[in-house]
Backbone:
């Protein structure tokens, strides 16, 4: 299964437009788009970056002696499992989502019985079982790619590309001023130095892997996605062999239903260039200058030098 599934994984630093881009891909007739963040990581992830990024967003690690059922429950998938098992406490309880998590587990186990256990096979089975079990998914019959999204996933790009030979990675970057201005609105926001360390690390890996695997890794600015989805996503669509003029690019959606705002899927409520610019202007001049000092080496690369 790992050898034949076509899987696109999106990654982005927090408040960089990953959820927004994910919602623009939703509804594309050739894509099975995961309904929420596809948090495929496991608690066994333990490396140099574990202290920087939540393990739920990472490429999963599985116990050597685990059963397929144990592997399934090791995949954190917090948003999906909470919505299925305890919908009354889910932030997505307002949308119709007919998927029984126990049924998905059983389908997953059946897949693994045929393929055997590996990180790639486990991830492939997880995505396939999701859409097999999702009863009210708005199908077209033309889907041939699965699409997931996890923040900061770009740091594990190589692990996925090696495990899933037909996979692609899309990394979304947003100017650091607007991104930080939005992250400040969280109940417990990251400090400016910590946020910029994570932001720059994401861009480092995105540029590194896009040069190492140019046919399988695409980097796009959310500013360009906001301005012209068809043009911005055309290089990715060409690599995937899908239509870049799909009507789904006209507006963000969930299960094909248009969303007035991306929230609560993401913190970017509106996806217009003017709103993005205004968000950056919410910062003080001292904050703007400090962000420029932290990110100077990437501002020219992404054409953000004169953004503020």
Residues:
């Amino acid at each position: 299964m790992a050898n034949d599934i076509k899987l696109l994984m999106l990654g982005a630093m927090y408040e960089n437009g990953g959820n927004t881009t994910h919602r623009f891909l939703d509804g594309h007739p050739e894509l099975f788009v995961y309904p929420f963040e596809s948090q495929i990581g496991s608690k066994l992830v333990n490396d140099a970056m574990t202290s920087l990024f939540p393990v739920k967003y990472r490429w999963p690690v599985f116990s050597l002696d685990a059963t397929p059922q144990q592997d399934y429950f090791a995949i954190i998938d917090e948003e999906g499992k909470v919505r299925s098992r305890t919908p009354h406490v889910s932030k997505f309880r307002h949308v119709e989502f007919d998927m029984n998590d126990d049924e998905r587990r059983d389908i997953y186990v059946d897949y693994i019985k045929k393929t055997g256990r590996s990180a790639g096979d486990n991830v492939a089975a997880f995505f396939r079982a999701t859409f097999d079990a999702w009863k009210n998914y708005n199908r077209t019959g033309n889907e041939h790619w699965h699409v997931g999204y996890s923040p900061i996933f770009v740091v594990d790009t190589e692990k996925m590309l090696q495990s899933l030979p037909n996979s692609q990675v899309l990394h979304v970057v947003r100017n650091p001023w607007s991104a930080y201005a939005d992250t400040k609105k969280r109940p417990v926001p990251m400090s400016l130095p910590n946020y910029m360390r994570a932001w720059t690390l994401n861009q480092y890996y995105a540029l590194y892997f896009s040069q190492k695997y140019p046919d399988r890794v695409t980097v796009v600015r959310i500013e360009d996605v906001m301005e012209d989805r068809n043009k911005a996503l055309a290089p990715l669509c060409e690599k995937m062999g899908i239509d870049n003029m799909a009507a789904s690019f006209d507006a963000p959606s969930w299960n094909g239903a248009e969303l007035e705002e991306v929230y609560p899927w993401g913190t970017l409520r509106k996806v217009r260039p003017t709103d993005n610019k205004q968000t950056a202007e919410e910062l003080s001049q001292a904050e703007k200058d400090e962000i420029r000092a932290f990110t100077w080496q990437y501002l020219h690369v992404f054409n953000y030098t004169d953004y503020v």
Q: What stands out?
A: The chain has a mean pLDDT of 95.
